[in-house]
Amino acid sequence: MTSPLNISKNLKTILQTIDNKALEVGRKEGEVNLIAVSKVKPAEVIAQALQAGQRIFGENRVQESLEKWPGLKNKFDGVELHLIGPLQTNKVKEALPLFDVIETVDRLKLARFLAREMDATGYSPDCLIQVNTGEEPQKTGVLPDDLDDFVKSCLEEYQLPIKGLMCIPPVGEEPALHFALLREMARRNGLQTLSMGMSGDYETAIELGATHVRVGSAIFGERPPPKPA
Ligand SMILES: *Cc1c(COP(=O)(O)O)cnc(C)c1O
Questions:
Q1: Is the pLDDT of residue 164 over 70?
Q2: Percent of the chain scoring above 90 in pLDDT
Q3: Which of 22, 66, 111, 199 is the most buried (most CB within 10 A)?
């Protein structure tokens, strides 16, 4: 069990590392946002990070988030919750009121459902497009060759509030190549937000322009391995 002291200390260390790295590569302090990835962690543990002042969080499952976050959002002001895992179309209705940013728009059917529900409900969280930069068959995300057309459809046909891109580089590959590719794709599409970098590579991501880094285990400790399906 991680003690409150450790979570708060881990957060401080990471925020300091983020600012140092930003300054080192000629960026401004405070330009890079830390998303604390709290998937699998119980609400009591997340509350320790909230008490330490952290406000931006990432979760990868809608159902788990519905169980943990309405209560936490009631108790703590100014929370910004990001969905960083796949979104099924049948979960869109429940996801919209809870998440402030949906980072994983990855197919036209989902874009269509999001647009329809945003119209119907008035909730319109910022959206990022997940790009499968490694073109891995088992991973979700828009393929790099399809991205420009996809951005155009999201913005023009569906009028989604698309702010930027996110990626998860393939395990075992040099992440810098993927971060550089994502930055270039955002640039040519006029998008500002770049969600990239995790516990092991967030400094590299900052060097390559990340506006948001998603850090889990370096804050909350190692997660247990996923249960077999
Ligand atoms: C779990 C997860 C992270 C955080 O990973 P760590 O290695 O624990 O920092 C970041 N992004 C996504 C999409 C994740 O699912």
A1: yes
A2: 93
A3: 111
